[in-house]
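Sequence in, structure out.
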Amino acid sequence: MKETILKKFEEVFGDSKDVTLYFAPGRVNMIGEHTDYNGGHVFPAALTIGTYAAARKRDDRKLRFYSMNFENLGVLETSLDELKPDPAADWTNYPKGVMWAFEEKGMKIPQGMDIVLNGNIPNGSGLSSSASVEVLTGYILKDMFGFDVTNQDLALIGQFSENNFNGVNCGIMDQFSIAMGKKAHAIFLDTADLSYEYAPIELKDAKIVISCSNKKRGLGDSKYNERRSECETALAELQKVIDIKSLGDLTEEQFDANKDAIQDEVRKKRAKHAVYENQRTIKAVEALKAGDIAQFGELMNASHVSLRDDYEVTGIELDTLVEEAWKVDGVIGSRMTGAGFGGCTVSIVKTDAIDNFIDKVGTVYKEKIGYAADFYVVELGDGPSVL
């Protein structure tokens, strides 16, 4: 990958003198979906696949971007004096947003850059290619210009830019898990106060398999913001009868005792998912610590059912991948991961069952949906780095 991206940099920008290479991972969320903006717990992990960059300072304020994933767009050019969202800027709105956020937070970027990106995260898969680009950009700025920011700061800056520059009301999970990734571990993160602990993922004779539906989805134009607003309204209704800051503060029993304060059946289901999913995530990490992978898998399955029935963010593609996975011997657990409406599922599969799993699930999916799914056996990796 290093040689490929350097060669492309030379091709696009003339030479590769003074270029530095960087990497930021993608992420998968093992359990805890749509809880991060509801003050609950999440359990994501950084992957060894992600986004690579070759970057070099310029002597002026010009910014030139090139992506090997979108070669048809060519070089997209702007400047540090024109950091505003622009549909014509396409994918570069993500790095531009981070640069804008740095400046908003008082860190003035002194000079422009030439940047070539190459990602091996399937685009639109729900493995956070956009958050990967955001954290990567922040890491490049920190390294190149010596800004005094921690990796946790980079996560918050990435979220700030996505909320305020790109208009997607995302929670903190994606950027946090990418910026704070640790090899062979997932992060048990309380999104209410950003307290976290690393939990080792020891699967012994099993592996994590990601099934990509190849149904593209964009967060901003999905029903993501709608779900968020439904939960906010449900929370406001509950707060009239119980003293809580977020849905994540409630146990299942407390929710069931107070749920009639929510005036609308749909909002009741949304809030139920947020509360129950948060408790599932807490139980899942306890199961993992106790070495009970079977229990972890059962909680993954229950998570998908809730996302399908109460939160209604799955759709026929993700449901087909998960429901077919459940029929295969050797599958310990399977669920959608990410925002939903397309994207990916994550499954824990016994190593000796992986080939059969890919064959069986892949065959039914193609017959039913009309196009193929892609499968990735993944490893959990570290956060961003200079290569």
